Amino acid sequence: MQSRTQRGIIPSHVPLLVLDLGPDIVIGVGGGIHAHPQGPRAGAMAFRQAIEATMKGIPLEEAAKEHKELDVALKTWKTSRVI
């Protein structure tokens, strides 16, 4: 059975979600994609970058050094960080 999440999910939440729920999850991220300052395409890319980094065990701050979309997302929602 897959776990699902929704509402208020942003890229910085990905590591904790995977830690708590495991890698076989569905993450509902509509607002977290569409509210990205660079637009929804960049928002989707930021989530994908966060997921890939998390699955590889790379801290998001490190991944953000190579991915502008993730960097912008982390800076935009820095007060909402859970990790």
Describe it for me?
This protein is mostly helical and about 80 residues long. It has a domain at about 30-80. The chain has five helices and two strands, in the order βαβαααα. It has helices at about 15-20, 30-35, 40-55, 60-65, 70-75; strands at about 5, 25. A two-stranded parallel ribbon has the order 1-2. Helix 1 (about 15-20) links the parallel strand 1 and strand 2 (about 25). Helix 3 (about 40-55) crosses helix 5. The N and C termini lie far apart (about 25 Å). The mean pLDDT is about 90.
Ordered list of secondary-structure elements with their pairings:
Blueprint lengths: L2 E3 L8 H8 L3 E3 L2 H5 L5 H17 L3 H5 L3 H9 L7
Parallel strand pairs: 1-2
Helix pairs in contact: 3-5
Q: What is the rounded distance between the termini?
A: 26 Å
Backbone structural class: mainly alpha
The helix/strand series, from N terminus to C terminus, equals EHEHHHH
* Percent range for β-strand residues: 5-15%
The overall pLDDT, averaged over residues, is 88
Morphology call = globular
The main β sheet shows up as: 2 strands, parallel
- What is the tally of helical segments? 5
